[in-house]
Amino acid sequence: MRVRTLFLYAIILLPTPLIANAQSNPDRKGLRGILGMRVAIEELSPTARVGGLSRDQLQTEVELRLRKAGVRILDGDSGSFLYLSVSAMKSINAPLYATNVKLEFYRLGTFVGFGKDLEASEQTLIASVWSKQVLGLAGSERVEMEIRQQVADLTDQLLNDYLAANPKR
Predict the structure, then answer these.
(1) Of the chain's two ends, which shows fewer C-beta atoms within 10 Å, N or C?
(2) Per-residue pLDDT tens digits for 24-41
(3) Total count of domains within the chain
(4) d(CA 106, CA 79)
(5) Is 44 exposed, middle or buried (0-12, 13-18, 19+ CB in 10 A)?
(6) What is this structure's pTM?
(7) CA 135 to CA 98: how far, in whole Å?
């Protein structure tokens, strides 16, 4: 099954540029008014840790990019957080890796609904207000560098949207 999936990635990606970008919510409004954010990195799978890539390394790189752009990094349990997910799958028959990097920004919000008796009720929830994902294909000698570059590119896209939604006055 994995070989078939990787082969499918290769067929889809090889005739086109080796990076595809999907955006699920292009709206910058969800980033408006954010004063800072916490960064959460999902634990990397053994395949994604190829070449020495680590969760701590990615955490440091993402936080550094945010700080350089003037975004305050929050500790602890803040209502707003940036979530990074990285996965990779190695081909059995070739020295290739299919990579998937997803960056999402979650924000605390309030949902107001009306029950059967038309009384308003409020629920606090955490919702994804910004999300982008990159799929890639890289040789085994370049997979760590490719993943790190994909993370940097997605972080820069977030920062562009964040800065557009929060212009300095």
Answers:
(1) C
(2) 445 688 899 998 999 999
(3) 1
(4) 8
(5) buried
(6) 0.79
(7) 7
